[in-house]
Structure prediction request, 350 residues.
Amino acid sequence: MTPPSHLAFVPFISVENMMRLVHSIGVETVLTELADAIEHDFTRWPLFDKTPRFGCHSETGVIELMPTSDGEFYGFKYVNGHPTNTKQGLQTVTAFGLLADVASGYPVLLSEMTVLTALRTAATSAMAARHLAPKGAKVMALIGNGAQSEFQAMAFKAVVGIEEVRLYDIDAAATAKCARNLAGSGLKVTACRSSQEAMEGATIVTTCTADKQFATILTDNMIGDGIHINAIGGDCPGKTELHKDILLRSQIFVEYPPQTRIEGEIQQMPADHPVTELWQVITGEAEGRTSPSQITLFDGVGFAIEDFSALKYVHERALKTGHFVQLDMIADPDDPRDLFGMLARAGEPD
Ligand SMILES: NC(=O)c1ccc[n+]([C@@H]2O[C@H](COP(=O)([O-])OP(=O)(O)OC[C@H]3O[C@@H](n4cnc5c(N)ncnc54)[C@H](O)[C@@H]3O)[C@@H](O)[C@H]2O)c1
Prediction:
């Protein structure tokens, strides 16, 4: 069989290589650089093709495709969200994604994105908080201590300067796991027995719980003046974390309104409820936090541009460091129009 030419090969970042890549750079540096890369792409927001993601819903969860393009590159992510998976020993969220060259349509990268999604979600949250949280915030309540939680804690340490995280989960084993993983991180870690206790002294609260229902992780009485809420667990129709009364008192910031109105906390509100687009805060076209007493809410659902930025970031880093393998992914006939001939010759005896 004729060996394929270089045109057949697409760099692939496996889970093993993603972990090597992240360790070669350092987790906090990756989170900081990702936050900067995502912020940079948010300044180019009008350039991108945008659409709410395509969801395939079932009783147990959702499978989603998240495409976007800046005209030069095209990216998409396949991601699932299945809150009851952990009971079967499976993760709630898994993902992989692809980056392609728009001019030729050829893929330039295939990558695992389960680890990368956790990194990009945390980097996006921290980047949003850099613009919205009260100045000098040092203590964050972290409610929901599953797969995403440590990434959130580390991103808020690296990007926002958080010094203490106060953990709460309905499952004490999840809190113990999170505390164990954060020991030695430089963060003060306090395990709490209720969300109320976790909120004591916190000026930022992150909710990253998983439950396929309208849940009430935070009630109105728990949110005092000046708090920044980073709500990332409500990211699907019929799946929210905050009591509606909190939304009525908050200045709400979102990624892409047509998607967030379907999936975010604001699905509880009328379709014209005022929201501010985060990219406009970053470009200076809209105001972020306007007073120390204001309650700000980042209603984060995860948008395709964040995955695009993350794919571009790891593509560049992997090519530099060699943390990838080449996949024989594109059929490569000698004559581009002789695909059948290539297949037929492969069946001939050597
Ligand atoms: N916005 C985004 O961009 C984005 C990205 C990734 C994941 N997510 C969402 O974040 C959430 C967390 O993801 P994960 O991978 O960490 O899930 P996970 O299943 O690993 O962890 C979720 C944790 O929430 C806890 N929990 C459930 N109900 C709770 C309650 N009422 N109070 C306190 N804790 C509760 C569970 O015990 C579990 O430990 C999911 O809903 C997921 O869909 C959002």
Summary: The pocket of nicotinamide-adenine-dinucleotide is lined by residues 81, 86, 92-93, 117, 121, 143-149, 169-171, 174, 208-211, 215, 217, 232-233, 235, 300-302 (CB under 6 Å). The two ends are 7 Å apart (CA to CA). Residues 114-132 form the longest helix (19 residues). The mean pLDDT is 97.
